[in-house]
């Protein structure tokens, strides 16, 4: 008889559904979070040379460019002119011939698989990967809300959960406004 009352009670059915969804979505998020966190950790070391391979690049661009224009065209961070010698401009990892526009430089790049993983952190709305970020955010939001159904309201654990939730929100607000 008790099971009949529980099944007819909408609150218990909603609690069961929320717990099931929380569990199943939680397992999906574990996989997404593992990959996302590992790629984020590796993203920290992208400029250190860790896991990078060198590639020699030779190309012809517009002649008679200034150093700032050259850095912009080559998309080089930390571009620094070492010296100039006539029509030749030598920079930190290459050289540029101002007369004919020939540029030769060494590029250090991450392996393709790691570049793909890092692109998860730098998506724009033009990339189809931005939908993964949106879905991931929605699922995380659902997990936060559905966790309120994990404990019966009125219990000490539920009150503790509400206090910790409010504390987390307060920390973020302090960080934003201070």
SSE pattern, N- to C-terminal: HHEHEEEEHHH
Average pLDDT over all residues: 84
**Helix content, binned percent:** 40-55%
Strand elements, count = 5
Please summarize the sheet with the most strands.
5 strands, antiparallel
Description:
- The chain has 178 residues and is α+β, with helices and mostly antiparallel strands.
- The chain is 54% helix and 16% strand.
- It is built from 6 helices and 5 strands, in the order H-H-E-H-E-E-E-E-H-H-H.
- A 5-stranded antiparallel β-sheet has the order 1-5-4-3-2, with no helix packed on it.
- A hairpin with a 2-residue loop joins strand 2 and strand 3 (88-91).
- Helix 2 crosses helix 5.
- The chain is elongated, with a radius of gyration of 27 Å.
- The relative contact order is 0.12.
- The model is unreliable at 1-5 (pLDDT under 50).
Brief rundown of the structure:
This protein has 178 residues and is α+β, with helices and mostly antiparallel strands.
Tags for this model:
178 residues; alpha+beta; 2 domains; elongated; 5 strands; five-stranded antiparallel β-sheet
Helix and strand topology:
Elements: H1 2-8, H2 10-44, E1 53-60, H3 67-74, E2 81-85, E3 88-91, E4 94-97, E5 102-109, H4 112-119, H5 130-146, H6 156-177
Antiparallel strand pairs: 1-5, 2-3, 3-4, 4-5
Helix pairs in contact: 2-5
């Amino acid at each position: 008889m008790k099971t009949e009352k529980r099944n007819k009670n909408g609150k218990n059915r909603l609690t069961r559904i929320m717990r099931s969804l929380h569990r199943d979505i939680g397992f999906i998020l574990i996989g997404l979070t593992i990959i996302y966190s590992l790629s984020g950790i590796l993203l920290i070391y992208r400029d250190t040379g860790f896991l990078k391979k060198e590639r020699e690049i030779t190309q012809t661009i517009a002649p008679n460019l200034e150093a700032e224009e050259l850095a912009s065209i080559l998309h080089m961070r930390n571009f620094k002119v070492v010296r100039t010698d006539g029509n030749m401009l030598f920079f930190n990892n290459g050289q540029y011939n101002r007369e004919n526009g020939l540029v030769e430089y060494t590029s250090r790049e991450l392996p393709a698989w790691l570049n793909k993983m890092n692109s998860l952190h730098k998506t724009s709305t033009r990339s189809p990967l931005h939908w993964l970020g949106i879905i991931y955010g929605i699922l995380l939001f659902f997990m936060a809300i559905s966790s309120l159904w994990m404990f019966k309201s009125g219990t000490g654990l539920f009150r503790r959960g509400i206090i910790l939730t409010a504390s987390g929100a307060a920390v973020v607000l302090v960080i934003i406004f201070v």
